[in-house]
Structures are given as structure tokens and as C-alpha cells.
Design goal:
The chain has about 375 residues and is of the alpha/beta class. Helix content is about 30%, strand content about 10%. The protein has helices spanning about 40-45, 55-60, 105-115, 135-145, 165-175, 185-195, 200-210, 240-255, 270-275, 280-290, 320, 340-345, 355-360; strands spanning about 75-80, 120-125, 150-155, 175-180, 225, 260, 305-310, 315. The chain binds iron/sulfur cluster (SF4) (2 copies). The site of one iron/sulfur cluster (SF4) has 13 residues, from loops.
């Protein structure tokens, strides 16, 4: 196994005895897996023994940091559908080429209308592969015309597929921030998690983005990479790993990027399936609970983000969305009923999966939540 300048292989944490890390061919839905049903996922999580694995809300209360409430809406995170050109092992969306859920133009326009009526500064577009939504460019163009910061959560390989070849230029022209998953800078580890050949295609896409000015030191076009562990472990320290990525990608492939975000795997969807099939769910949940860090609670992304699903329903975050846990019944449930005052201070709906956000340095779509001391 290759090692880094710091003597560690970043993807090796928990990998040695982890057998579930290889790309799958079909989504859980198409496999007719019971776990394709969010209710079944919640049932599995909720039935774990309560002594060692207390409810998240109870832990917040016990540690004096609950109940959890929103503190404004800085980010509108729009999940434009579950269709994707990849079928990654850990996907919390259960996305893939076999999924058909795609946000309509009408719902996209409702999201744009909310941006028009509010001062929400950031539109965070996710999926699936969001670029596969036929209205993706309309959404980007309209949001940037409103002066909003736009994020595209891009899987990189989509930039090389038929019909999307000019996407890098489009993204650069609209100054879209690209946030891209790359769970390692070593080929074998990426391909195990995301599919054969994904690493080389990702590098090719990164080079194209670099040529357009993305990720260049001192440049304005931001290209962030996202790391998540291959196995059932917490991410290594973000700064150290970023330095390893920087060295590895630059020396081996001549690739530059702006920053690295580390994200903890959520015990839901396909990663939950892996944990169950290896009999390691309780071990992983216990690890998350024992690593609970009260300092991460203040910055939890649900406190400043509102998540929208492909039908327009509202959630506290993309993870709650996938578990079919909508926003509190006390506030509007659909983007067409958006009410800034009510939604900005809503109570947050939580579950055992939330320990994934508060473990260690904390975790969010923007990486760790707690700066090192
Ligand atoms: S690229 Fe992203 S959305 Fe697509 S299967 Fe992989 S993790 Fe899921
Ligand atoms: S899973 Fe969602 S609701 Fe739970 S703590 Fe994380 S961001 Fe908040």
C-alpha cells in the first residue's frame, strides 16, 4: 500500500478489514432492497440498543446544547434529482443511472423565486449528478444573474460524458464553485469506492478545470475536493490530509485544487447497507456516539441551511431528506409555501444518524466544523 509524506495512507483508516468498498451496479431501489425504503432505514437505526446509543436529542439536552433550532437560512441546498452516471458504494442518495427522479422546471422556478424574494446568499446544487437535470443550466444562469454564489456538487466524471463536454466552460463563465468528491488521491482506493476507471476520469476532469483557472493558487475559481473514509472510521484531520492531497495530486498528476473538505460517512442508505452486511453497524454507531463533540453543535449545517428535494418538499438537510424526515410540522413543508420568518427559526428534526455530524471535528457539506485547537 502506498503511503504519503506523513507516513499515512489517508484512505486506510478502517480499510484493512473492510470488505464492502467496491462500486455497486444497481441502486438499492433497483435491487429491491428493503433499505431502499427510508422508513426501513429509520427502523434499523432506531431499534439499536438505547443504553450505549442514546437518542441524539437526549444527548444534546444532557450536554446542555439542545434543543436544536435553525439560526437563519444562509444556504438553499437544492437536490435536483437522484439520476447519476455513477453508482458509488457509499452514496447516501442511493443515486444511479437507474433512478428517474428529476426536479421539474416548475419546481426549479419556485426555488429561484425564493432566492429572488430573500437574501439567501448561496445556492448549493446537489443530486445525483445535478448536471444531468435538463434545467441545470437554467438554474445556474438565473441564480448567478440574481448575484448569488452558486455551488455545483460535481462528481467530475460527468464533465467527460456526451452532451456535457462544454460544462467546464459554462461553470467557469458563471463563476460557479465546484465541489467534487475524490475520496483519495490514490487510484485503487477511489475506484474501489466509486467504480472502475473513475479515478483516471476524475483526474482528466480536474485537469480541464485547472486549464480554465479552477483551483489555481490565487485564482478566483474555487475547486474544492471532498474526502470521506472508505471504511467505518472518522476522517483524519482535515489540514493534514489537505497537505497530503496537495502533494499527491500535484506530484503525481499535476492537479491543483483550492481546499479539501473531510466528511464523515452517514450510517444511512448504501453505507448503512454495507455496515449491516458486515455486521458492523453497532460498532460504527458506538464510535460516532463516543466521539460526540459538543463544540460541533453550534455550526451544524442544518442550523443555516434549508434543503429542497426534487418534488419541492423541505428538509433540514440532505441526510434528513434521504431518510424522509421533513422539516417540523410547525413550519411550511413545500418550497411553494416558503416563509422566511418561520423557516429561519424552525426546530430541527434529528435522529441517530445526526451523530455523524457531531463526531470528532464535526462534519458538514463544507467539511469539518471545529477548527483544531
Ligand atoms: S457520484 Fe455522488 S450522487 Fe452519484 S452515485 Fe456517486 S456519491 Fe451518489
Ligand atoms: S444529519 Fe442533518 S439534521 Fe442531523 S445534525 Fe446533521 S445536518 Fe443536522
Amino acid at each position: 500500500m502506498q503511503r504519503t509524506a506523513t507516513g499515512r495512507d489517508p484512505a486506510a483508516s478502517g480499510l484493512q478489514d473492510w470488505e464492502g468498498s467496491s462500486a455497486v451496479m444497481l441502486s438499492l431501489l433497483r435491487q429491491a432492497s428493503p433499505l431502499a425504503d427510508p422508513l426501513e432505514q429509520r427502523r434499523v437505526l432506531d431499534q439499536r440498543p438505547g443504553d450505549a446509543l442514546p437518542a441524539f436529542a437526549a444527548t444534546l439536552e444532557q450536554r446542555g446544547c439542545g434543543p436544536l433550532r435553525a439560526a437563519g437560512i444562509r444556504v438553499l441546498q437544492v437536490n435536483v434529482g437522484k439520476l447519476c452516471n455513477q453508482t458509488c458504494r457509499h452514496c447516501h442518495v442511493d443515486a444511479g443511472p437507474d433512478r428517474r427522479e428529476v426536479m421539474s422546471r416548475e419546481t426549479i422556478d419556485l426555488c429561484l423565486d425564493v432566492l429572488r424574494r430573500t437574501d439567501i446568499g448561496t445556492l448549493d446544487i446537489t443530486g445525483g449528478a445535478p448536471e444531468m437535470n435538463p434545467h441545470f443550466r437554467h438554474l445556474v444562469q438565473s441564480a448567478t444573474a440574481l448575484g448569488r454564489h452558486v455551488i455545483d456538487r460535481c462528481n467530475l466524471t460527468i464533465l467527460l460524458t456526451h452532451g456535457h463536454e462544454d460544462l467546464p466552460e459554462f461553470l467557469a463563465a458563471h463563476r460557479v464553485e465546484v465541489i467534487a468528491s475524490l475520496p483519495c488521491y490514490l487510484e485503487a482506493n477511489v475506484d474501489r469506492q466509486r467504480g472502475d476507471g473513475v479515478f483516471q476520469k476524475s483526474v482528466q476532469a480536474l485537469r480541464r478545470l485547472n486549464e480554465l483557472g479552477y483551483g489555481q493558487p490565487g485564482g478566483e475559481l474555487e475547486l474544492s475536493l471532498v474526502y470521506n473514509p472508505v471504511g467505518p472510521s472518522l476522517p483524519p484531520p482535515q489540514d493534514t490530509l489537505e497537505a497530503d492531497y496537495c502533494r499527491g495530486l500535484r506530484s503525481r498528476y499535476g492537479v491543483e485544487f483550492t481546499r479539501l473538505y473531510t466528511i464523515t460517512n452517514m450510517p444511512i442508505s448504501r453505507f448503512l447497507d454495507d455496515l449491516l452486511s458486515q455486521g458492523r453497524l453497532d460498532e460504527y454507531l458506538t464510535k460516532l456516539v463516543q466521539a460526540f463533540n459538543p463544540a460541533a453543535v453550534d455550526g451544524l449545517m442544518c442550523r443555516t441551511t434549508l434543503s429542497v428535494d426534487w418534488t419541492g418538499r423541505l428538509y433540514d438537510c440532505d441526510f434528513n431528506q434521504m431518510l424522509d424526515l421533513p422539516v417540523s410540522e410547525s413550519v411550511p413543508q413545500h418550497i411553494r409555501e416558503f416563509d422566511a420568518a418561520l423557516l429561519s427559526s424552525r426546530p430541527i428534526v434529528t435522529g441517530r444518524h445526526c451523530y455523524g455530524c457531531t463526531a470528532g471535528a464535526g462534519s458538514s457539506c463544507q467539511g469539518r466544523l471545529v477548527e483544531p485547537a
